[in-house]
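Worked example 2:
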Amino acid sequence: MDAAPLLDPKNDAVFKRLFAGAPHLLAELINAVRHTEPPLTVVEILNPEIRPEELTGKLIVLDLLAKDPDGKLYNVEMQVRAHRAWTARSAYYLARAFAGQLVQGEDYSRLKPAIAIHLLDFALFDDQHQGIWCFELRDREQPGVRLGEELQFNVIELPKADRLGAGGPALMAWVAFLKHWQEEQRMNEINYPPVKEAMTRIRSISDDIVARHEALKRDMAAMDEIVFRREAREDGLAEGRAEGLTEGRTEGRAEGRAEGRAEGLAEGLAEGRAEGLTEGRAEGLAEGLAEGIAEGLAEGLAEGRVEGVAIGREAGLAEGALQGQAALLERQLTRRFGPLTETHRERLHKASRAELEVWADRVLEAHHTEAVFDS
């Protein structure tokens, strides 16, 4: 029987299974990234399991949290997609791991350094001449002065690191493994024992039906996220164009009417003055009084209409946005669970903004329609 196709080690479920089952390989990867530090011989994986709910979480990254014999913590992640809050999220998780070492009342001297290693299959920075980064707490004016070793971020941009070939032989072997695992000839050229062992483990994991199912669920979750974001973007663009067209037409009509009234008033005043001078001061005074009254009425009417249009537009935009949000949620519910009942449709279109936002959050995790509306 033919061997199963190899699973991608960059799939974070496969990545976690690979290293959680071989802590010594994780130690070798950490040593390759931190090759200027004393080498580790063993690490303890603190979160080796993969929980079922983690496989379908679109924004969840399956990380590895390890501890060396000295108590230092290592948070190791493989990530293939960038998002705007990446740096804030990464800083938060490392800070939480660092602070989580203590319970209330314990001495701060018990805290051990927390070190993050992020393997990114995308470019985080614009600089095309560097793909390996290490961030620490250092002085801006004197970078040689380090505040302490408590926190450290190591970032490996795999595409750039692979292209530049920097970082030392061991790290380059790991980069080649993660980028070229499907290229048999390229893998056969690597003589670094830990990577050769990792390739053997990837073949074994690829034959495991449970591991293949986990990898598939992670790939599906990632695809669902991409589709959901694209559809939301397309729906938002369509709704924005429609609202902009309607608002533009309304404002254009209002401005045209206002300009027409102003021009008509100016012409009428000029003609009235000319006729008043011709027909006589007395008659001109009478006509001027009448025109002044007419002008005041016209200006009052124009101002009232402009204010009414503005108030109406604001109310219409708010109602339109609410209905658009309800329509988008209805579309998402229909795609996931099929056509809605009239009762559900009526609830959607009578709901408040707060209710719609709650239901929109639930639709990502719910398994049926009732769970969205009644959880």
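Strands lie at 44-45, 64-67, 73-79, 114-120, 132-138, 146-157. Residues 229-374 form one domain.
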